[in-house]
Amino acid sequence: MAIAFSPATPIRSQLTQKSIPSKPLFCFQDNFRTSGNVVSWAASANYVSLRVGARRLQPLVKLSWEKRRGIVRCATIEEIEAEKSSIEKDVKERMEKTVENVRSNFNSIRTGRASPAMLDKIEVDYYGTPVSLKSIAQVSTPDASSLLVQPYDKSSLKAIEKAIVSSDVGMTPNNDGEVIRLAVPQLTSDRRKELSKIVSKQAEEGKVAIRNIRRDALKAYEKLEKEKKLSEDNVKDLSSDLQKVTDEYMKKIDTVFKQKEKELLTV
Length: 267
Fold this sequence. Notes:
Layout: H1 11-15, E1 38-43, E2 48-52, E3 55-57, E4 64-65, E5 72-73, H2 77-107, E6 123-126, E7 129-132, H3 133-136, E8 137-143, E9 146-151, H4 157-166, E10 173-175, E11 180-183, H5 189-226, H6 232-265
C-alpha cells in the first residue's frame, strides 16, 4: 500500500494528474468495508500509509512507478504467502532432520543391550564403493547380548568383518563363513558415565543446530520486511510462531536425550 511520490509535489496534485490512468493505486491484504472517512495520510518519499476511520492500513508492499508512466507493480498476496510458506516448510524440515540425526547418533552408542542400530554407522567397502552395512546385510538380535549379521551376498563377509574391526563399536566379529556373530560386552560404571557425557554433548549440538535454523528464518522474515512485503506486526507474529516451533523441537531433543541417558545408566 505504498506509492512513490516526489517530495516536492503535493499529494493531492499527484493523485489528480490527468496523465495517470484510472487504475487502482493501492494493494490491500484483504477486502474490507468501511463507512468511515479517510482521516489522514502519512507519507514519506517512498510510501504512503492510509488511515480509514480508526483503522490504520499497514503498508503491505512497496509500489513504484515504472518510468514515471503511472504503471504500479506490487507483490501479490499469493506470492507473499508462498514465500512465508516456503520459509516455514524449510524450518520444520531442517529441524526434524536435526532431531533424527541426534536420535541416529544416540542409537549407534551401545548401552550393554544388543540393538541392530549399533551398526548403523558402519560403512563397508563393497566392490570399491562405500555402502552402509544395513544395505547389504540383515542385522538381528538373537538375544539381549549378541548381534547376528547375515549378508545378502556371502562374498561380502570378509569386507563386512574388516569394516566392523575398523569401527569404534568395540566388538570382535566371529565369522563362520555364513554369518557374523557379535557379542555385546557389558559396560562398566565408568564407561557408562563417559558415554553419558558424550550423548549430552551430542544433544547440545543438536540444540545449537535448532537455534541456527531459527536464526536463518528470522533473517528471511526481516528481509521480507525490508522489501515492504511484510509489516513490522507481521514479522512479530511470525517470530512468535517460530519460537513456538523452536521450543517444540528443543523438547523433542530433550526427550530422546533423557531416554538414552536412562538406558546408559541402567545396569
